[in-house]
Amino acid sequence: MNKTIIEARHALLKFFSQESVFVLEEHLLGVPFECGDFKLKRALILEALNDLEKIELIKKLSIEKTWALIKPLAMYEQTVSVGFETAQAISESINAYCDSVGNTKEICDPSNIREKDLRNLVLILEALVAPK
Question: pTM of the entire structure?
């Protein structure tokens, strides 16, 4: 099973969405990241923790192998820029879905993509890949 540092980082962000402190020896097994080899998992998680520390999402504490969120993840925002073709494709996908379910409140304007549009796109994808 090949795993990457990005996948380990994703698993840690899931962990930090529920918890504010990570203690390596206490929480390592509970991190939703399976790679088949405990030593490899530990190494990848440590690298991911270092990456999150470098971008100032977490800080290593004086307690051995313990990290804490600097602030709750919900307080962070990201800026995303998309070109017109991508914005139009996002809008067409959302609007086609809205038409199919009869929802006119969530129509997407391709000249003004907002966070709610990206959230709607995620909800549409989740509905498509949900187990039936």
Answer: 0.73
